[in-house]
Write a structure and sequence with these properties.
Chain lengths: ~675, ~675
């Protein structure tokens, strides 16, 4: 129990750090009234969206919590009503705390953006610190809430199943938050770019553009709140899977030990992260990440060596997981970095027109899948084999511990990731607040660093989700075996398993298609609205002083559109999962989860990397290569970037959550279709 | 043995029909000297490419045949040298006959194209007949060669393993023929379109364009020879898998029965296919397909009922396979047909710019995967369950018989498919031969019918490949079990299986990326060459009489480029397969094949359907919608079509062959890594 309690202590410490950073950021001055006003518009827009989204999701959560009450851990007509009640409560708590994490994130991000913009007048370091510490509030809050919740549930109930229902609550919120936020942000981004940059040739973030505030709101609701919910979900799902697998082996302590030390390492990393006045903020972010990895390695090694119950083989699994995370991160960096060959080649292809931009970027995206997916495979295989000698039941523990290792530094990852949209917003505020070119240079530099860091952290997030869902597959097997009392295997030569695999493979595909079609529809609607405003509001195009566009109209289109689209996309995955379970039973479900994981990882990696690649190819050209801004190559690159936007910020990252949710739905409903199914 | 001999008789009959059609087409007049000259250029270009390609492939086949000699059916140092010699000989025969099929196809297609063009002056019916009967030569030749070879090998050796090595020979040629032809055709097509239609605004097939002959050559080497090799490969692979599985059950006769009757049905279908003078040629093609399906159903049902050894359940499996083929075909038709919602929506999205064209087309492509992949899953599951009551070993027979059913009408499918490039060429010849607008109207109509039929036949081809490789997975298991004497299962919870699944899933991705990057590189080089010719050859752009571009230069660029690119793409898949086998053993290989099948099908369906969708969205706009030709929507649609070209004609259809080859490589080398592997 020692490490469970230490986990609570470290979580409390992290909350303390978060609170300290929050106050620190809040105390920074924002002298410019214009920035305060625009910043307030962004803040209001973000909270408006969040409230409307949460209101819808509350209904969804309420309905599902009744279903959980009816069927989990065992059908209420067969089992113990008290346990089901507890499961429903933890489910609601998971959803609520996931929502809270998003709320905290928006709250700090929309304070930090103004302060980072304003601080840029005083130089790169203060602006960077405002952005980074703002991000760190989110990082610390998300991880500490997840860890504290898992530890508390373990202490109070002593039953890892309830962490599973808690995780399901967090996931079902994350699924919609990520998808909804992703649709919102890209709707606004694409519409703003197409009408502003492409049609009128006005700069990004120009205040004449009616979509500009919606675009900045989008950064917050998509990248901050959505991403926070996503990683909250990954973190708690990996804890839940590891705990379910560790429970029968009496190894829960090791799960908490490594998680607590991971958070501690992140706290240290966040506190000592600095950038020199003439330093490279991108390097600073990456150095912080690597430093955190190092601290985690040393701390866990020491803890393992001094604790007689901990086996060094299990430590090996967590170390392997972390290392593979780093490798995947750097693979993403290779395929999306603007000093590397793929970006250069795609930028060069832009010279021959947009079709070549798309084809070459998409092709490199396809290539980028191999190293990452083989890395995940090696991590899973290695962790399994490493821990296998410890006896039956241990191999799957190895995989789940590898995912804990990969997610160990998630506190640092989220901090880096939330930094991105904050400084992106700061850039927008600096532009709209007319702070001048010197300040814009600084915010541009900080923004670019955010993009580099993002490639690596995204690689981490996808890799970790991959290992987590493999572990969840193990947890699913564990639950089914405990229900049926039989040893289960999923033999690919069993036609039900193969059938499930095929159907599962198609889910991420239809899910991401629905999100992208949603973005397509909404941004076309928003483009229409912008054209209308330009046509009807006199003097707007010309920038006549005092003439303002109707920002709220665009925010409203993005909000209503995103909320309308997110429900069907999320529901389809859940409903097909239930259909497959009740038609094909446990066997089909095993294959279904595997198929879903495989194409899910494939599509997530493809879309994230291709999207990042197009984005940076555009930036590469903008920095003066192949004709620079305004050239034909640039026009092609902008089209590539527009295609890449929903790839990398809507569909790609949402797939993570989709595969996690589907795995959890399978585990939660396993008792049902283990007892009844058409063919199973 | 009865049906094995009947197979030979039906094959001979089909060869007779092919020979009759060949003579019939050859006897048609080509009065216009200009068409004869240009037609000869195309014919020469196609044969030049074929010869150069075959020369390289001969070296490859020679090397691999030595490997086959060393290891198959069992390592030569352990087994029977006579058997290995036979395997090597059948391997070479498979490759040679696949090459022959391609040769026959090119030979007839480059005669039929001129005759179809010339016949268009006399009306739609004669032109259609020239195109369709030209295609039918290919269809009859391919299927009869495959069936006769399988029957002969069975009669002479009595050992289905040698059909496996024959099939491997056919596949290894097909892999390169499809990939090489696919790269050639799209290199020329894209370069011709971009410089001609987009930059200069001159019509398709304008003789001023230096790439125009290369484009027409590409239709032949890619769509005729490549597609013929591909379907020859699918046909023989499905026979091989079914025979290996049927042999221990003593059910080989039923395999030959259904295959022979399928060919007979195709012969009847081809002979009675007609179009009325005012009729719709697209409908005629589809009616022919459905008619063939009906004849096949009736004939096989009668044969099954009158033969006491044939069980009606097995007939059910073949019927199910055929039905699912039809359903997948019509699904493809829905997602790519220009009178259906997806094409209309994508065409509408073109109004908002090329990024929306790409995003919406890609998204619908993603959606289109679900019904087809679920269809394949249902066919496999249904066939398995239907045949399961017959006893052990039968279920996999059910799946392989379902794939025989889906491929039963392949003779008709190839006829329809080869019709496409022939009338496409005829259109080009009519344009270049200045036959006038009335003739062009007819050839346009015939060309459009080819595209509609193509969507359906492509669906069939992918579906059949899917079922075939599932059956090959069964054959692989069969071979491993006979080597090791143990019952094998591929449990997804075994980390080696899961590792294999992940790696296998990445193979189609990297394979198709390499092909598309090849097209990208080559067509950029060709665009450069075309610009050079326009700049240096005086009067070319203006169309001064007597001034001709250097067509051969472009043919040469496409030839050299395609041959350079096809080898690495093909080798990578084969080498990674061997590495996975020797590292992870039989278990990893089972997962690897499954992963490869799943993402292979996924990508093939996505790319074929998205590509067809963009193509038809462009045609939809060209027929006067959303602004028609020359509008902004049209420009976006052209970009979408260019992206779709290598999707649907290079990468998408090559993946079929790639998954078949990989499955066969696994079966051929199974004895090796069953005895040695690092972790297995």
């Amino acid at each position: 129990m020692l490490w469970t309690i230490i986990s609570l202590v470290v979580a409390a410490l992290a909350i303390g750090v978060a609170a300290y950073f929050y106050k620190w950021v809040q105390a920074l001055p924002v002298e410019e009234e214009k920035i305060r006003n625009i910043g307030q518009l962004i803040r209001d827009g973000a909270f408006t969206f969040l409230k409307r989204e949460y209101r819808i999701l509350a209904i969804f959560v309420a309905i599902v919590s009744v279903l959980v009450l009816l069927v989990f851990p065992s059908p209420i007509w067969k089992g113990n009503i008290g346990e089901n009640l507890l499961a429903a409560i933890t489910y609601i708590a998971g959803a609520a705390l996931s929502g809270l994490a998003g709320y905290v994130g928006i709250s700090i991000a929309t304070l930090a953006n103004m302060r980072s913009a304003s601080a840029a007048k005083r130089g790169l370091v203060p602006s960077y610190m405002a952005g980074f510490r703002g991000g760190a509030v989110m990082g610390m809050a998300v991880v500490s809430i997840a860890l504290a919740a898992a530890a508390l549930i373990q202490l109070i109930t002593g039953n890892a199943d309830f962490v599973m229902s808690f995780s399901f609550g967090a996931s079902s919120l994350a699924l919609f938050a990520k998808a909804g936020g992703g649709i919102f942000t890209k709707t606004a981004d694409i519409a703003a770019d197409l009408t502003g940059k492409v049609e009128l040739g006005i700069p990004e973030d120009d205040p004449r553009n009616p979509a500009v505030i919606a675009d900045n709101v989008g950064d917050n609701v998509g990248d901050v709140a959505g991403m926070g919910a996503d990683l909250f979900d990954s973190q708690i799902a990996s804890l839940a899977a590891a705990m379910v697998i560790a429970a029968p082996l009496n190894k829960i302590e090791i799960v908490f030990c490594y998680s607590a030390l991971g958070l501690l390492a992140s706290i240290i990393g966040v506190l000592i992260a600095r950038v020199g006045a003439s330093g490279d903020p991108g390097k600073a972010l990456n150095t912080g990440t690597l430093l955190t990895c190092g601290i985690f390695t040393v701390l866990t090694l020491i803890a393992t060596l001094i604790t007689p119950e901990f086996d060094i083989r299990i430590w090996g699994a967590t170390f392997l997981g972390m290392m593979v995370g780093v490798i995947i991160g750097f693979t993403s960096d290779y395929f999306t970095g603007d000093d590397k060959k793929p970006v250069e080649k795609v930028a060069e292809a832009c010279k021959s027109g947009p079709a070549f931009t798309i084809l070459s970027g998409f092709s490199y995206g396809l290539v980028s899948v191999l190293p990452s997916i083989v890395g995940i495979g090696i991590a899973a295989l290695g962790a399994y084999k490493l821990v296998e000698p410890l006896g039956q039941g241990y191999p799957m523990l190895g995989i789940s511990i590898a995912s804990i290792g990969m997610l160990s530094i998630v506190g640092m990852i989220i901090s880096n990731d939330a930094y991105g949209p904050i400084v992106d917003n700061a850039r927008g505020l600096a532009e709209m607040g007319e702070l001048g070119d010197d300040v814009l240079d600084i915010t541009d530099k900080l923004d670019a660093a955010g993009n580099t860091a993002k490639a690596i952290t995204k690689g981490f997030a996808i890799g970790a989700a991959g290992l987590t869902v493999i572990a969840l597959l193990g947890a699913f097997q564990e639950i089914v075996e405990s229900v049926t009392g039989e040893i289960i295997s999923f033999n690919l030569m069993d036609p039900l398993v193969f059938f499930g695999t095929l159907v599962g493979a198609a889910i991420p595909s239809i899910f991401s298609a629905m999100l992208m079609l949603g973005v397509n529809r909404n941004s076309q609607a928003m483009v229409e609205e912008i054209h209308k405003q330009f046509d009807t509001i006199e003097g707007l195009k010309e920038g006549k002083p005092g003439v303002m566009p109707d920002y709220n109209k665009c925010i409203d289109i993005a909000t209503v559109g995103a909320i309308k689209e997110l429900i069907p996309a999320g529901l389809v995955s859940i409903i097909i999962t239930l259909v497959v379970g009740f038609v094909g039973g446990v066997q089909a479900m095993g294959g279904y989860l595997a198929g879903n994981i495989v194409t899910g990882l494939f599509l997530a990696l493809l879309m994230s990397n291709a999207g990042g690649l197009w984005d940076n190819a555009k930036k590469y050209i903008e920095s003066g290569n192949f004709g620079g801004k305004g050239s034909n190559a640039h026009k092609s690159a902008v089209i590539g970037d527009t295609v890449g936007d929903p790839f990398k910020d809507t569909a790609g990252p949402s797939i993570n959550t989709q595969i996690t949710v589907v795995s959890l739905v399978a585990s939660i409903t396993a008792t049902l279709f283990a007892t009844f199914s058409l063919f199973g």
